[in-house]
Amino acid sequence: MPSTSGHLPRILRAIDDSPEDSIEQTLESTAVDDLSPKQQTVVLQSQRDWRRCLRILRWLRSRTENYVPNPIHYNIVIRSLGRSRQWDDLRLCWIDMAIARVPPTNNTYAILIDVYSRAGLVKEALLWLKHMRSRGLYPDEVTMNTAVRVLKDAGEFDLAESLFVDWCAGRDELDGSDSIGDDNNSATGISPKHFLLTELFRVPLPKSIEKSGPSVRKPKLAATYNTLIDLYAKAGRLADASDAFADMLRTGIAPDTYTFNTMIYISGHRGDLSEAEQLLGKMDERGILPDIKTFNILLTLYASAGNVKAFFACYDRIKGLKLRPDVVTHRIVLHSLCQMKLVREVDKMINRMERFGVVIDEQSLPVVVKLYVDEGMIEKANGFYEKHCVRVGGISPINYAAIIDVYAEKGLWEEAEAVFLGKGDAIGREKHVEEYNVLIKAYGKARMCDKAFALFGGMRSNGVWPDECTYNSLIQMASVCELPVKARGLLVEMREKAGFRPRYETFSAVIASHARMGLVSDAVNVYEEMMRSGVEPNEVVYGTLIDAFAEVGDVDGALLYYSIMEESGLPVNQIVLTSLIKAYGKVGHWEDAQELYSKMMDLEGGPDVIASNSMIKIYTGLGMVQEAKSVFSVLRDKGQADGVSFTTMMYFYKSMGMLNKAMEVAQEMQRSGLLTDCASFNNVMASYVTNGYLKECGELLHSMLVRKLLPNAFTFKLMFTLLKKGHFPIEAVDQLESSYSAGKPYSRQAVIASVFSLMGLHDLAVEACEAFEKADTLLDNTVYNAAILTYGASGNVDKALNTFMRMQDEGLKPDIVTYINLVCCYGKARMIEGVKRIYSRLNCGDIECNESLFKAISDAYKDAGRRDLAALVDQEMKFNFYMEQESGSELDVEDEELDVDDE
């Protein structure tokens, strides 16, 4: 038969094209058995499928006249079978190797160690190391390196180092391998470990020729040092890694790209970026080309250090070296840019990837969506999702869930729902429980319980079964939304129907929801269910129950669970003792509360602010001034006094008639930066109004608005009181109050503008008016009157008069408040004729006689410098109102004349 050695490529093509069931005929026709052993090795190595590889070896073994078995061929087949986890066929191949009297070599054992470790069978892999020692075969450097790598990847760093040291010293015992935990067996049901111990190791193999190794060994391969350096790096022993690298250089072993990559990572990990850059320079000096992994490491290090300039320079260098960025590169770049909130650069990167046809990897999709959402670019986030996330075959459920969760965290339930119900369905994607869970979370954050429960109700019909997380989320949501009955029903379903065992946090949420609603007996029932389920309550559960009893003033109930808690051996904390203090306070047992408070003094850190506030409330409720003041002073000295502390003392002093003290507390509260919500602002403003600090109250109102805190009904009640105390025309106050109560458009802005005008805060008043200046809605007299007042008081008379004309154009007739405000404008502008015109109409009866208008006209003349006219107006005002009073009396003319004569 002619030689076929020159036709190897043709033979390989023929084998590749051959169906599997006729591969033997192809081997026969191409005379593979006439190939040299080396060429046969190439044929075996070229097979990508373990079945073909095994069939070729068996066919060669059947050609006994031409084929001489050799370990290289068996090694190739063993590697193929091991990586495919075909343990039965591997066992048969091992037996066949023994029958053929082919002794396993170091390479054979290295392959076995490698394939078993790749299958997650670390302990079994290392048994091969012991097996080769039992046969008198000492591991060479490749085998030793493989074993060290296996131990390193398994996190057995000390054992890996011990193996390396022993090998270098000529000792080859692997002590400590039994401490490595067993992993799960193969999914085939055959235990590879059992297979090793009962079958493989019994095969009668001939003794190896190698009976002993050198007494002292020194690594000669760069791969060995690479493994050792990586081992030290993963173990956190960075100094030892550097020493191994130095020893490698001293020994004369040339480091490769992998070596430098590891060392660059180590340098960056310990914060030495300059050393990492020097290592990159040394690569260049040695003629070692960096690969894309080198730059991936550097990009990660620069991003972690926040060095934006170096980050972009590194990325530009990748392009300069014409390296092709891989999936990891793009992921690092996108993640880093998103973390640095560089939206424009992220957009550029995405455009570049699109130009080169690079698909954004799944893990980056939620990260980019999060960047856009965090920056308030919701439409852009939605567009990105539509363009990159809706793919043929979809993306993994975990990444869909991550995208939904981005929206959920911001309370954007509609966007979260759109992703859940979106175009992914159009490509036949099935939803998973993780996606349901995060949408339930989104509904929960938005307090949309009905939607969440409806979604939950439809899960099973869609073939998705709720998991423990589903129930926990629903129960937490129901508890927060004050739906204790629903929460308890879900808890029962979770236990009895779904078969899950709720955690103590779940029970605690249900107990707390009942307690907040005052359903103390139901909270106790849930606690008893918890005990029957074998779930041990913690101090939070007991604290909730004790607080529930305290809220309803049931001291005995609170003390009962306090006693149970102590008997359970749980530590008594400040929260529990504070609840007991509250319970005592509800029933007026201040001595018992005081005793507990003293007990808290012995705890680490002493009583917390809540306990101290409870004592202040107890003392103030009983009028115990000195005791309340003492506790408050201690809190203040420690810097622990909060809004509740200040507010309680403020109202206490006010109720005791100690207005100056109340004012001092209010001012200190403001200086302490404790005004964080509408209620705290209201408390201080109320104190200011009571004590006549009207301008300060107006300034506080402005601070409140600047912080985007919306005034509530109590705030407006304070503003009306402030206007009255500030001698604002009573007709204007009544008009503003009536408009506000009726909820008319821009009535709130009109009140605020009036307050600012009265306080002399004219810029703020004008700013408040701008809200309704451009309004398309039909406005009433109240709003126009406030605008006329605001512009006139600020000196912008033209705008005030234009507003008056606009009011008339809208068909609105001026009322008494309009005339009062117009007179004020005329006075400030020294428009005497305007004042006289309104005064004339008042005198002739066109305008109803009004004391506030008389006063406004008098003040206008004074503002215009005409005190003489003001005096006449005052005189007439007194006369008119005197006559009104007299006309209503019972005195007659005759009596008056008699009285005059008598005088």
TrEMBL record:
Domain named PROP1-like PPR: residues: 445-567
Superkingdom, taxonomy of origin: Eukaryota
Cited Pfam families: PPR, PPR_2, PPR_long
TM region(s), chain numbering: none
Gene3D superfamilies reported for this sequence: Tetratricopeptide repeat domain
InterPro entries found in the cross-reference section: PPR_rpt, PROP1-like_PPR_dom, TPR-like_helical_dom_sf
Keywords attached to this entry: Repeat
PROSITE patterns noted in UniProt: PPR
PPR repeats: 105-139, 221-255, 256-290, 291-325, 326-360, 432-466, 503-537, 538-572, 573-607, 642-676, 780-814
Family that this chain belongs to: Belongs to the PPR family. P subfamily.
Record's protein name: Pentatricopeptide repeat-containing protein
Species this chain originates from: Acorus calamus
Lineage: Eukaryota, Viridiplantae, Streptophyta, Embryophyta, Tracheophyta
